Structure formats: C-alpha cells, structure tokens
Automatic annotation (TrEMBL):
It is a peripheral membrane protein. This is Cargo-transport protein YPP1. It is found in: Cell membrane; Cytoplasmic granule. GO terms for biological process: endocytosis. CDD domains: YPP1. Belongs to the YPP1 family. GO terms for cellular component: plasma membrane. Its main location: membrane. It comes from Spathaspora passalidarum (strain NRRL Y-27907 / 11-Y1). Gene3D superfamilies: Tetratricopeptide repeat domain. Involved in endocytosis. Keywords: Endocytosis.
Length: 890
C-alpha cells in the first residue's frame, strides 16, 4: 500500500464507503478543520437515520437538532476563517452546510452557500494529477452531491441535472458507495421532474442521451422494482431493444488490441462497468441482456482490452449464469492473477468491494455442495481440484475482508467467548449508519457467509480427524456470526444458517432465541418455524411437565407447529388468489412442516394416533405439486421383493448369495420388534392404508402401459423424487408399526414414482432386515457401492441399517458370517465406516445411533476408553434429540 501523504487520507477513504471513522466522536475536540467536518457529517447522518427515516431529502417538522448542528458548523467555520483550505476541504464544507440548510427548509441560505464556490460540470483532470486516488474519489462524490443539491434550489434545476449527466463520463465503482447513493438521488429527482410515466422516447429527447454512460445507468435505475411506477409499460421492452443494439454495435466495432504500455481500455471498461453494475440492482436482469449475448460481448471485449479485471469479473458472472462452471473456474483463477499484477504495479487495491463480491460469488457457487452434490455443474474439472483451490480462494477473500476492515474501521468479536447472539444486543459498528438492506452491508455479510458456507462443506465432507472437525465447526459459527454482526436483519438465509449451525452445535437455547427473533421479522420463513418446533421438542424429552399428554393444553411444540401450518395455509391461499406459483423450495418447506407435525404428534400421543393423519401428507403434496402419476408397468423393473433375485450379485467371498437361500414367509416370521403394537387398531390401520392407496392413484388418467417417455419428460424430476421420499418415509412408519406388507407396498409405490436408487435399496434392506437378512445385506451393500460421496444423509441411513442388521438382527442360527474370522472382519469394517462417518458434521457426529453402534463395537473389541466416550456421547445426544433431525433429512 502507498504510504498516506496526509493525516486525513485514511478518513477520506472511509468516507467513500459511506462510513465514518471509529473514533469520529473524538473529532469534536480536533484542531483539524477536515476532521471537524467529518464529525458534523456524522452527526447529520445520525439525525437522518433516527428521525428522517434514512431519507437524505426528508424535511421533518422538528428541526431543532439540525439547527443546532448548523450553529455549531458556523462557529467552527469562524475558528478556521483564516486557515488555508484545499479545494476538497472547501467543497466538503459547502455541500455539508448546504445539505443542513436544505433539511431545515432554509433554501435562501442553501443557495448562498452553494454559490459561494464555483464547481464546473466537468472535473478538470489537471487538478487531479496531484491528488491521491482516495482524494479523487472524494472530489467525484462531492461533485455529484453539489450538483444534486444545486438542482434542488435552482429555478432551472432540471437543466442542471441534465447538464451534469451530459458530462458524466466515468461511472462510479462499486466501492464508491456514497457517490453512487447521491447519483441515485439525482436520478430520482430527474425522473420525478420528467413525468409520472416516462416513455423511452422521452429519454431519447433528453440532452444527455448521446452519453451512453448516463443513458444506460438512468434507464437501469428506472426499471428497478421500486421505480416501476415511473416508467410506462413499454419502457423496459424498448430499452432492452436499444441496449442489445448498443452491445451488438460494440462487438462489431474494430479496436486495436492494446498492450501494457499503451492501453485504450477505459472506454470499454467504463461501458461494461456501468452497464453491469447498474443492471445488478434489477432483478431478473438476464431477461434484459441474455447471458449468451453477454458472453459474446465480454469475450469480444477481452480481445480489445489488456488484462481487464472489469471485463473478466463480469464474464465470470455470465459463465456462472450459463452453468459453464469449468470456464468460470479458469476465468476466476486468471482474474486472481490480474489482481496480483495490478496490486503489485499500482501499490493499492482498486475497487475492493467489487473484488470481494466476485470472490464471495465464486466461493458460493464453486462450493461442491452447490456444484457437485445434487447436480454436477463442472463437466471437466475434478472435485479434488475445486476443493483444493477453494481453500486458496477463501484465504484470499479473508485477506481482502481484513483490508476492508482497516479501510472502514469495522469491528467484530474480540474473543471466542462472546455471547452467541451478542449482535442482537450490541451495536458493533455505530460508525456505519447504512441500513441492513444497503449494498455495502449486503456485500460484506455475503462474503462472511460464503466463508462460513465453505467451512460447512469442510465439516461435512473433508475433516480428517475429530479435532480438525471441531475447529472447522468453530469457523462455521464464527463466519456466520460475522455476517450477522454486519447484517443482523437483512437476510433470512444468513440468519437461518446461523440458527441451524447453533442447533447442530448443541447451542439449543441460543438457536431457539434466534429463531424467535427471525420469525418476528420473517413470519413466513417456514424452515425457521420447522427449526423452532424441533428445538422445542429437543427440550421436552426429559421435562417432567411434558412427560405425559396434557388434556387441558397443548405442548409448545404442538402449539407452534399448528400455528406454522396455519400461516402456511394462508400463504398458499394468498398466492393462489394472486395466481402466483410457489417455488419448489417454498413447497418443500411447507411439506416439511407437515412431516414435523406428524413427528410431534407421534412423540406426544404415540404412533397409532399419528398414523391417522398420514393421508394428510399426501393430500398436502397433491395440493402443492402438479405431478402426473402415469408410471411404467410394474413388470418393466423388479419389484421390491425381486431385487437381487433375477441375477447373481457380485458379492464378497464370505457372503452367501441370497438367491441360493430358501426364503421364509415374511408374514409368518416377523421379528418381535416389528410386531404391531398391542394397542394398535387394525381397522384404523387398514383404513389409513386404503386412503393412501387411493391417493396414490390421483391423476392416473392413462393406462400403465402408455407411459414412459411422455410423463417422465413432462413431470418435474424433483417433484417425483420428493414424492418417492414421502413413500419411503411412510414405509418406515409402517415398519415401526409392524405392518410389513403395507411397508413393502409403499416401497413399490416409491419405485413406480421414480427409478429405484440407493434410497429404495436401503428401504428394502430395513424391510427385510429381520426376515431375509441376506437380501437385506445385499441391498445395503448395493447402496454403499452406489452412494455418492456428497450424499451423507443416505450414507448414514444405510450404515445404520447395516449396523442394525449385524449387531441386532443377525443371530447365530444361519448367521451372515461363515466364521469368527469373517465376523471379526465385518466388525472392523463397520467400525471404520462408522468412525469415518462421525467425522461428518452434523449428520454423522450428531447421530446418537452411530455412537450407540460404535459403543457395541468397542464393547466387542474391549476398548474401554472409546466405549466410555461413545456411550457418553450417545447419552448426551439422546438427551437433546429432536423428533426429527434439524436438517429434516431423517
């Protein structure tokens, strides 16, 4: 970094971000004129935040505090009347005092102050040569604010704003936060001065229309959601046509490729930065400039610019939008090289917010949880390479965040002993007066979240030992908390992610408080309602007040889940009335609420009571999802009972092929643990099963044989997978009730809805664990062979089934193992599999069943130390176990 050539250089840099120095209150006693102005500016913004609803142009009825600040400013000015001031100091004083006068309605005084200094529309480049970069950005901000305020009081203010935009040749960067804010205010006032419903033809007639920079940023401002009433209905369409034509013209324009010594990048960089930066505030902006068009344009721009990070960063975003992750990955690594070269040559970090945004976006999207787990978005790059580079990217982002912390005097936790929810009670950064919805706050919070998200991946998939895993969990919590220290209310994703991480770290009280806080601001966050209820159930296990059902009042968990479902019902109705479709995530979260309700009912009233409500799950599914249930004929693939019988299984030498064994009649040899409960009503059960079977036929209008190509293409695969999961969940309910035939029928339905997979294999393994244990072992082995490394939930379910089969269901008569040596090998194998699984947080390390089966293994191998540890861990987890996993993956 270049050594500051002014005592106020670092404060100037802080102001550019719309922030103030941490020690700003001390400036009241300062002998430096500029520092006194910073103090006054801070007091003014504090009043605007507290009394003016964060509106810089709102004039309140009570003006006492502002008048006092004006008096203080005038007295300070008299003290420095004979002191020589730089141009930027004088300009800062003028716009500050003029703004204060405007807030009190003293227009005449405001006019006199603004007229006391001559500020041309174009900044004289010669005057900037002696200034530092930070000083130049300060002047650019004050220059914009000056003309904005001048237009408010001038009789021909409209012309002043037009003239300013006509001369606006260099767009502000993302890091020029306060300058961008005042440019938006100028756009707002200009738009209000034109008409109530602006047409694109009107914009064409404005004097600045020939200036592409001003025209594009102004039009992008008009198509933001908050400004939708300012432009007419055809504006967006006509502007899109114009914009695409400008981009196509730029592609066709011939430009000589520059070199490092003779670069003509500025025109191209300015156009691209202005276009994509101003467009980033517009939701669904891909419909305006299609990613394919952007890709052509930006690739063309790389051939006309020299190592342009502006071009490359926007190309990275575009490639991610196109799901071209391999190309984006390579481009991002090149981008990092450009940054290193630029910082080495210039000695400073340019536009740090843009850098941080690019890093955090790439880290989030390249995270294997998003790029490999459910859909492999990298086609040619191995996940091992992505994982290795992600660590480098994260460390580099942390470096930039630390630099930003220096630039704007940010404060985070000073120690790890701070309260988990201290950000709810303590204002960490009173020097930042921007709202949680501002872009600055959102970008910083997003960066911390991306790091926490990365470490959540490491905790789940890449911890080499227990110590490392615990360290990574600490990093998850720390980085998620940092995102909330910066932005404590503005983003439900960050809030819920931290609450879930707290719950998975056994900090249930903190997680519960945070959930209640979240729901006050986001009452329609159904995943938070779900987590809240599950946290309540975890505290009801050993509570004597909730040990028996109370006929006079509901438990908290039952009460809250009912409230959540009522809100969900209203949410669905509201969207239906407005003809708005719910997203897949919203539908899934509502469905998860229903499953949680049934789990709560089972924990309070028992399994039989809960089973009376099974049909409601499928009714809700059909209400939420539109899936045709025309499925291939059963004979086109093996049924549940036929798995493994049509062909010999490639098995380990010590296991007996199940096709060679006489199969017992399942209905005659049920395990005692699968027998129907003595209190069960077989009539009720039969009615429940019949209802489910009727529901399973809803929408089946074609014959079974008419199926495959049409329905599979038209139906959403995600919807089918979800329905398959519901049938498998139902099969587990029937298994617990001892209704094995009904459980098998559910598995058959699951196969019909979506192709057989490790979920159905494992379900069959559980079904046959007691009665056909060799088939069960085959299915569990089949699952282990096919399970994806990122599918920890299904891996855990399979491992628990196999452990149950070996340590509980297997008996010496006709054992799975042909010798003691074979048995010992199986035990050691299970030990290794389960121990590795405990290094996966939270699904493995927080599973009481995993620790229980490990304790049985340690007991067999006589490892007393590990036996003691695993038993205590099992008891600890059981004491706070919710009725479902917090992630709702059970």
């Amino acid at each position: 970094m270049i050594i500051d050539n002014s005592i106020n250089e670092k404060y100037i840099r802080t102001l550019a971000f719309g922030c103030f120095p941490k020690n700003v209150l001390e400036f009241q006693e300062s002998q430096d004129f500029f520092q006194q102005m910073i103090f006054i500016d801070y007091q003014k913004q504090l009043i605007i935040k507290e009394e003016h609803h964060n509106n810089d142009l709102f004039i309140p009825e009570s003006k006492q505090k502002i008048n006092q600040l004006i008096q203080y400013t005038n007295s300070i000015t008299l003290n420095y009347e004979n002191t020589e001031k730089s141009f930027e100091e004088l300009l800062y004083y003028v716009v500050l005092l003029a703004h204060l006068y405007y807030l009190t309605g003293q227009v005449d005084f405001m006019t006199d102050v603004l007229n006391s200094i001559s500020v041309p529309y174009s900044i004289n480049e010669a005057n900037l040569t002696s200034m530092t970069k930070n000083q130049i950005e300060l002047v650019e901000y004050l220059h914009c604010k000056y003309h904005m305020l001048l237009g408010l009081v001038h009789e021909n203010g409209f012309a002043i704003w037009l003239e300013y935009l006509s001369h606006f040749s260099k767009p502000f960067t993302k890091s020029q936060v306060i300058a961008n804010h005042w440019l938006e205010l100028l756009d707002l006032k200009l738009a209000e001065s034109i008409s109530q419903s602006i047409t694109f033809d009107q914009v064409k007639r404005l004097s600045f229309f020939t200036n592409e920079i001003s025209t594009i940023q102004f039009c992008n401002f008009l198509i933001r959601p908050e400004n939708i009433d300012m432009a007419d209905s055809q504006f967006k369409l006509e502007y899109t046509t114009f914009l695409v034509s400008q981009i196509e013209a730029n592609i066709k324009r011939s430009v000589i490729f520059p070199n490092a010594m003779n670069s003509n990048d500025s025109t191209i960089n300015n156009f691209i930065n202005n276009l994509y930066e101003s467009l980033s505030y517009v939701p669904f902006n891909l419909a305006i400039v299609k990613p394919t068009v952007s890709k052509r344009y930006l690739i063309d721009a790389t051939s006309k610019t020299y190592q342009s990070k502006v071009v490359l960063s926007n190309l990275i975003y575009t490639l991610i939008d196109l799901n071209e992750y391999d190309e984006a990955f390579v481009a991002f690594k090149t981008y990092i090289e450009y940054l290193a070269t630029e910082e080495q040559l210039s000695g400073h970090i340019d536009d740090i917010l843009s850098i941080i945004d690019t890093f955090s976006t790439c880290i989030i999207h390249f995270n294997p949880i998003k790029s490999f787990k459910n859909e492999q978005k990298f086609k040619h790059t191995p996940d091992s390479m992505v994982e290795a580079d992600l660590k480098v990217f994260t460390d580099k982002l942390l470096f930039y965040l630390n630099k930003l912390q220096e630039f704007i005097d940010l404060t985070y936790d000073e120690s790890d002993t701070e309260n988990d929810l201290s950000f709810l009670y303590r204002k960490y950064n009173p020097n930042i007066l921007q709202t949680d919805n501002s872009q600055l706050i959102e970008l910083i919070a997003k960066a911390w979240y991306s790091i926490g998200y990365y470490y959540s991946f490491v905790c789940m998939y890449d911890s080499v030992d227990e110590t490392t895993m615990k360290q990574n969990v600490t990093k998850v919590l720390k980085n998620y908390k940092n995102s909330l220290i910066i932005n404590s209310t503005g983003n439900i994703l960050y809030l819920h992610s931290y609450a879930l991480a707290l719950a998975n770290s056994q900090a249930n009280k903190s997680a519960l408080k945070l959930c209640k806080f979240i729901l006050k601001k986001y009452p329609e966050s159904f995943k938070t309602w779900n987590l809240l209820v599950l946290l309540l159930t975890s505290s009801e296990i050993d509570n004597p007040d909730t040990s028996k059902p109370d006929t006079t009042k509901l438990r908290d968990s039952e009460d809250f889940i009912n409230k959540a479902l009522n809100i969900a019902g209203l949410f669905i109705m509201k969207h239906q009335e407005k003809d708005i479709k719910l997203s897949f995530i919203e539908k899934t979260e509502i469905l998860e609420l229903k499953l949680t309700q049934l789990a709560v009912l089972e924990s309070i009233y028992g399994l039989n009571y809960m089973m009376e409500y099974l049909n409601e799950v499928f009714i809700l599914y059909h209400e939420l999802f539109d899936v045709e249930f025309d499925t291939p004929a059963r004979q086109q693939r093996d049924s549940a009972r036929q798995f493994g019988s049509s062909a010999r299984w490639s098995h380990r030498p010590s296991f007996i092929d199940p096709s060679n064994l006489p199969h017992k009649d399942v209905t005659k040899s049920r395990s005692p643990i699968l027998d129907p409960l003595t209190t069960a009503s077989n009539v009720v059960k039969a009615q429940t099963v019949n209802k489910l079977k009727r529901l399973s036929k809803i929408g089946r209008t074609q014959t079974r044989s008419s199926v495959v190509s049409t329905s599979r293409k038209s139906d959403n695969i995600k919807d089918r997978k979800l329905l398959q999961g519901l049938w498998l969940w139902t099969s587990r309910v029937f298994i617990r009730a001892g209704m094995l035939d009904e459980a098998e029928q559910c598995i058959v339905e699951a196969e019909a809805i979506y192709k057989p997979n490790i979920k159905t294999f494992t379900a069959l393994g559980y079904l046959t664990s007691k009665t056909r244990k060799f088939l069960a072992l085959q299915e569990f082995e089949r699952s282990l062979e096919q399970v994806d490394k990122y599918n920890k939930q299904d891996l855990g379910w399979t491992l628990l089934g196999m452990a149950k089969l070996i340590f509980i269901d297997d008996i010496t008569d006709n054992s799975l193992f042909i010798s003691d040596k074979d048995l010992n090998g199986g035990i050691i194998r299970m030990k290794n599999l389960l121990e590795n699984f405990t290094l996966s947080w939270p699904c493995g390390s927080n599973s009481s069943e995993v620790w229980y089966y490990l304790s049985k293994i340690y007991e067999i191998i006589d490892d007393k130390i590990m036996l003691d540890k695993s038993l205590w861990k099992c008891v600890e987890l059981e004491d706070i176990r919710p009725v479902r996993s917090f992630s709702c993956d059970s």
